[in-house]
Amino acid sequence: MRAHNLKSLKMIKDNSVVTIHYELKNSEGEVLDSSKGQEPLVYLQGAGNIIVGLEEELTGKKVGDEINAVIPPEKGYGMPVDALIQTVPRTAFGEGIDQVTVGMRFQAETEQGPVPVVVTAMEDDTVTVDGNHPLSGQELHFKVSVSEVRDASAEEVEHGHVHGPGGHDH
Ligand code: ZN
What we know:
The protein is mainly beta.
């Protein structure tokens, strides 16, 4: 019988702190994001740190497991919403309008707090900004490998995020 490292048998469940390497492609096979050559992603399972579709796919997995998952927008970044696309007068940007270009990202101040938006069009008198997530409406093709699984501390569970390497340092 081969000796097993007990730690490697720990399965991912709610309140697991999970370390993963990942690659994200769209349905055309373009790489949109990857942890390759970077620090792995460390997240708290069940706390909404990552998209729900990926949490579901990772539930029950353990160190050394690799998964390929196709996640629909409903379990990813949602569908784009027209209400988040707004056309505002150029004057709303004040002096800053000189720096505004199509494709520029910034935080828009709204009644619900700051929302990240991208400038999608500029007309003579107006600027169109889109507050939808850049990956909304997209089918997400993930390749994920699990490199570490541990139980979260009570404090991490309470805060809803990971502390220490790869997490918050407060
Ligand atoms: Zn914290």
